[in-house]
Write a structure and sequence with these properties.
Layout (H helix, E strand, L loop, with lengths): L6 E6 L4 H13 L4 E5 L7 H8 L3 H5 L2 E3 L2 H4 L5 E5 L13 H12 L4 E5 L8 H6 L2 E3 L12 H15 L15 H17 L8 H12 L6 H20 L7 H9 L14
Parallel strand pairs: 1-2, 1-5, 2-3, 4-5, 4-6
Helix pairs in contact: 1-2, 1-7, 5-7, 8-10
């Protein structure tokens, strides 16, 4: 992520090693590396933290510890605290998605801190006062409290997506041109007639149904080539097995009902 070195995740006196390790993994997932822990506890289970961090333990090994949150964010301009509680001085809270542009803008020129509170009661009023902006993660009013690692994941995910760093995978081939699609439909019409699935006088109707089915999604060049290969193989196979084709009159009855006919059991001499 661009300017990732200017974005710090600050945890205020976390209780559980598992959450610390999970935060390390989240940070590695989203390209962040600067972890600060304010007022660390002596009894945190570091083995649990290592287990939850998986291959992101290097984030913990590089983290820094500070006696207070104020010291952990002393060199940061924009300091963003997370809160689930409501109140007069929290009414200006933004969602993580809404504040992403401001974070990215600030990180271009100075350090930014995203601050997350304790698992049991969050950030104190004194710690919230240090923050220049508050985030509230949308959640059901009946239960607003989120696990701290989950809260970090939501915020970092929104930040990573908003940065434009992620590029979705693309289809290997482009959308099939009309000319290629029409060749494919012509092949299937010929094949379905040849195997007795439909009669000539119902072909246009049935082919409109097939077009509708295949038109529900984008057909790439590769998709169409596969379907054309299936049509060719079906036609070839119908000529290899005696009696495999269905009588046109019998197939038409099923086509009228919009159902696929049962194939005639071929007799194969042994």
């Amino acid at each position: 992520m661009k300017n990732a070195e200017n974005i710090r995740i600050a945890l205020a006196s976390p209780l559980y090693g598992g959450n610390i390790g999970s935060v390390c993994r989240v940070m590695a997932n989203t390209g962040l590396h600067d972890l600060a822990i304010a007022a660390p506890r002596d009894n945190v289970d570091l083995q649990e933290a290592r287990n939850m961090a998986c291959s992101a333990w290097h984030i913990y090994e590089q983290h820094r510890e500070f006696p207070t949150l104020s010291e952990a964010v002393a060199d940061c301009g924009l300091v963003i605290g997370t809160t689930a509680r409501l109140g007069l001085y929290r009414s200006h809270s933004l969602t993580p998605r809404a504040i992403v542009p401001r974070i990215l803008e600030a990180a271009a020129t100075s350090r930014v801190a995203l601050v997350f509170g304790r698992e049991d009661w969050g950030l104190s009023n004194e710690e919230l006062a240090i923050c220049t902006q508050l985030i509230q993660i949308p959640s059901d009013p009946g239960y607003l409290s989120l696990n701290v690692a989950q809260a970090v994941m939501i915020c970092c995910y929104e930040l990573y997506v908003g940065s434009g760093e992620f590029v979705p995978s693309q289809e290997k081939t482009p959308e099939a041109p009309s000319q290629l699609r029409e060749r494919m439909f012509a092949m299937w019409q010929e094949t379905l007639l040849a195997i007795g699935f439909m009669k000539d006088d119902k072909a246009d109707h049935m082919m409109l149904g097939l077009r509708r089915i295949l038109g529900r999604g984008t057909l790439t060049v590769d998709d169409v080539k596969i379907l054309m290969g299936m049509a060719r193989q079906t036609r070839w196979m119908s000529r290899q097995v005696p009696g495999a084709a269905i009588p046109a009159d019998h197939a038409g009855e099923h086509a009228d009902a919009g159902q696929s006919p049962n194939p005639v059991e071929p007799h194969i001499s042994g």
